[in-house]
Amino acid sequence: MTAEAVAVAPVGVPAPASALSESALPESAPPAGPAPTGIRATARITARRHGSGATVLPVLEGEGPLAVRRIRGADGEARVALVGAMSAPLGGDRLTVRAAAEDEARLRVTSTAATIALPGQRGEPAYYDVELTVGQGAALHWLPEQLISARGSDLHVTTRADVTEDGVLVLREEQVLGRSGETPGRLTSRMTIWIAGRTLLDQELSCGPGAPAGWDGPAVLGGLRALGQLLVVRPEFTEAPVQPCMLGEHASLTPLAGPAALVTAVARDGLAVRRVLDTALESLMR
């Protein structure tokens, strides 16, 4: 690092203006402008294995539209549902969900309804970040309902997951471009997955008005309006990797360079995408 020199005058003698660096001058007030819109909210979920073998939730916090509720678990698994406490994400919103399954813990996170991205007052983008952590011997199932991109919205979704070498992650992501009879908004989605510090998957897709040309062409969506992905990370796939195959006309199963498999599907509606992903999940978890 380099430091900018400032000339210092003897005590009682003002320094000439030319001897002062710009950093020594008083900062001018920022120009007045419109106040930022949108809300900032974070939900935090931490699952921890109890001595009895059950999984407890020492951290279960939500803010604003991100309400979290504990629901009935089973077989030592803790279950949490995200509940939309208000309309979100709107343009200008910045929402974050952090969920962690500590060593040997088992956590399943769902949501009670679809999430609808809506336009804000000034056309600003909204941001929705999901951060997942899976500890040693832990399992985390991230299974929210669909995300619907409404006309005029602009949403950036980022999903990051850090999984230990013997952790289990089941991650489902479903997106519907526009409500019934509606043109979609702009939707940019990026997913980055690490296993034991190594990058397993890093991909981004942008759809809707202003997205790079070709997003609706035959190489991507082919005119369809619903898409979904199912990522399954299991240590068992190290010794017995899945075999690539087609799952119907518009869906495929692909082994990844690690103990993981990725299912990708597009369809005319969200219900058709869910059927494909549910069938694939049942097969991959046997």
How would you explain this protein's 3D organization?
This protein is mainly beta. The chain has a domain at 86-103 and 112-284. It contains one helix and 18 strands. Strands 3, 4, 6, 7, 9, 10, 12, 15, 16, 17 and 18 form an eleven-stranded mixed sheet that branches. It has a seven-stranded mixed sheet with strand order 2-1-5-8-11-13-14, with no helix packed on it. Strand 1 and strand 2 (55-61) form a beta hairpin. The longest helix is centred in the C-terminal third of the chain and has 15 residues, at 270-284. The N and C termini lie far apart (55 Å). Mean pLDDT is 89; it is low at 1-30.
- Tell me the fraction of residues in β-strands, as a range: over 45%
Report the order of strands and helices. Answer: EEEEEEEEEEEEEEEEEEH
Number of helices: 1
Q: Work out the number of β strands.
A: 18
Summarize the amount of helix as a percent range: under 10%
Dominant shape: globular
